Amino acid sequence: MQNLMQWSWTLGLTLFFAAGNIAIAQDEKKEKVIPIKPAEVKLGRPVEFEKDILPFLDDSCISCHNVVVDEGELVLEDVPAMLKGGKHGTSLVAGQPDKSPLYVAAARLAAKTAMPPMPNDAEAEVLTPQQLGLLRQWIVEGAKAGAGSAERKIAWRPVPQQANAVYSVALSPWAQFVAAGRANQVVLFDINGKQKIGRLIDPGLSTIKWNDGLMYPDGAAHRDFVHSVAFSPDGNWIASGGFRTLKLWKKQPQQQQQLALAADVTALAVSADGKSAATALADNTIQLWNLATGKPAALLKGHAAAIRGLAFTADGAKLVSGSADKTIRLWNIAGAKQEGQLTAPADVRAVLLSKDGSQVVSGDADNTIRVWALPQPGNNDAAAPVAELKGHSKPVTALALILPAGTQIASGSEDGTLRTWDLASKRNLKTMNLGAPVTDVAARPDGGALAASATNNIARIYDLNGKQLAELKGDVNLTRNVVSKTDGQTVAKQQFALADAAVKAAEKNLKDRQDASKKAGEAKTAADKALAEAQKKAKDANDKVNAAKVELDKKPDDAALKKKHDDAVKAAAKPNDELKKAQSGKTSAERAIKLAAESIKTAQANLDTRNKAKTAADAAQKKADADLAAAKTQEQAGLKPIRTIAFSSDAKRIVTGGDDNLTHVWDAATGQAIDALSGHGAPLTALAAAPGARVVSAGADKTLRIWSVNPNWTLAARIGAQNNDPDSLAASPFISRIVSLAFSPDGKLLATGGGDASRTGELMIWNVQDRKLVRTIADAHSDVVLDVEFSRDGRSLLSGGADKFMRLFDVATGKLDKAFEGHTHHVLGVAWKADGSAVASAGADNVIKIWNVETGEQKRTIANYTKQVTGIQYIGTGDNMVSSGGDKTVRLHTASNGRNYRSFSGAADFVYSAAASRDEKIVVAGGEDGVVRVWNGTNGASIFNFEPPKPAANAQANAAK
């Protein structure tokens, strides 16, 4: 039988996980089953499996009968598996098609067994009479596997648009993003923002033709279904696995552009269309920029002191500036000239334009907010404000217009307050105290919230009623470092406790051995004494026998002497027997002493080893304590004044900047820290939102930088498919699908699992940076490797396979350390407990098993699933686990007692994959229904469902029919 790589593959083979749910609509519309009459076959040659049979099996059968989704335990991917059959026996009887269940089902001779069921979401069609004739003739000819052809090219087709099953999900390291393998796409979702932020697109697939158009008009990650996906521990890499191809995607720098300035920036504005920016410089000039080209435009001169506020008109044609020279100026962008001017009674610290552009509002150093009519071109005369808003007790530092109505504004002041005002009534609506001078304010574009930053190292989000929604502070990277070090300390404590318990057990064992030795010594003393006594008694008795014999020898016919001799012999029998017993007792006692000595030596060696391990664990714990203390010190040192704040244009993010030189990105709804972007070499002085989820930052390092607030990963490497020809798999190191992936804890290694169904498991370790194969672990499993996971220390690799085994390998050598046997069906998932003391396995036999790593013994079986348990993960550093199952459920269990303490409902079909955040607050899952579900792990409530795309009526994919 040829390897899978030598087959004529079509896309049907890649419907990897469609677990018996292909006929979703059949309950709604019952099929009228009509038997198919096979056509007469006249090929002029024997029927070949790879050429004639496999292509239509791919289209109609394999989606439900493959190595992982084996409905009825039947696999139809190769002839040996077909002959082996499922739980009801073989599917083929060579030479007898009418006795072959596969033929009977395909010919639709019985309604209950007719396959495939119609209709179905995978677009699988019933066999044509010609195809059925080929199948029948092939069976008649003996159902031979055939020799195959290594030259045969894969016959790719578009993925059916209805096929949206999610076979793999992965959480980013801090549970902000989900990567989901949906059909041949890898889709990225923002959990907090409850939005799709992108897809991974392989540009090499975008130009592939199909019929009269493109095969993947909207782009794709893989040509077939994405069977596995994983984030690296730092989130900078995503790995995805498909048919014979591994792809690595690298996170791109979020800084998109950097512009050099002539001086430090004191104020910043971006036009509504995002095409232009204005930077107020420390030399009192205004530099205009074309953001599309990154080129400087006009330089505006006129102010005589620091410029503190800038605002574009809605059409971007004009610019308003406010300065410490007590003037507000109107500039014509196209002509690069001043058109009008207002004179204020105090330094102008901030400006904004009304929604209709007819008025300008200034925040002034005399604690007053002033509303002015926009000066007309050529009018530089003194004019009085049309309104004054008073309430602040110190200089006004920042202003923001509250849209969409535009009838209210927000202001910040050195008096530490954020205030909202109604422009028509001039009333102060709400006052919020930040506790320190306010440096900047921002209004969410939809008007739903306000944000303000202050010199006391915080920023806050408020609703319009003045309720605080969130507080923002610190450097998320330093905070995460504290969390990581806290986890490290927790694990170190657990491992020290394990080491201490092991020492105590070893000490007890040694004492038991010493006690046994003492008893053996006492037994030896007693045996020596008993032997001496027995020897004396035996000697006395034997002496009497000898004396009687001497007398009898002298008078052999003396009956009395003969009786005396016989009586002496009889009397000596017992002492001699007791002597033998005493000698045996001494021998046993000596052996016991020797064994006791050896056991003491072994126990002492074990104790020495355990003590060394405890010493190492103690040192590791002390280091973890010191690392955590240092991390907390760094976190506190990272608290710096926040100088500027802005909402992103899509209202999903807040961005802050200040004295730590970082551009901080936060979730606008929850205030959760998302990222801290480095680039500026000095404190940030201003921020402004730009369309397309971008933000512009300015700093005291004389640079202007443009950032994307959402991350983006692009293709960095293909392993398997050639970089210059993504169609070619001739040089692929993978024999079939890559169904499991795992990064090492340091992110330097990537383990891949797959294999050839019913033949061999394939387990490889790769160097992420140079994409080179580090090691192939030969004969890792005798069937497909379905899951892999590194231990927390990165020294061991756990794998589970279709051969029903879970195995543990040494990463450095590839040597098998331990095999765990106990499942009665495929091992679909494996997981490490953080402290390394236990591992868990999930099986197609509907159970979860917990194992002792050191002994290899099974500790517990958890059996409350009614279908396959498709995945397993220990959560954080504790004893809780998340798992998914074919019974449409996702569950949380405690490994030590097996308690199912929470279940998550909502899935409409088979669930293939689940993951949880380290703190258990987020649980995600995906399955056959194509929905990526997100729950609150602490209470089971649904957070959001990311639905699959709706199929277009005339989609290109339908051309595959």
Q: Can you describe what's shown?
A:
Among the domains are: 4-140, no CATH class; 267-475 and 646-652, 7 Propeller (Methylamine Dehydrogenase, Chain H), CATH 2.130.10.10; 478-637, Helix Hairpins. With 961 residues, the chain is α+β, with helices and mostly antiparallel strands. Helix 5 runs antiparallel to helix 6. Strands 1-2-3-4 form a four-stranded antiparallel beta sheet, with no helix packed on it. The protein has a four-stranded antiparallel beta sheet with strand order 7-8-9-38, with no helix packed on it. It has six helices and 58 strands.
Number of helical elements: 6
Average pLDDT for all residues: 91
What is the highest CATH level, the class of the domain at 267-475 and 646-652? Mainly Beta
Poorly predicted residue ranges: 1-29, 148-152, 954-961
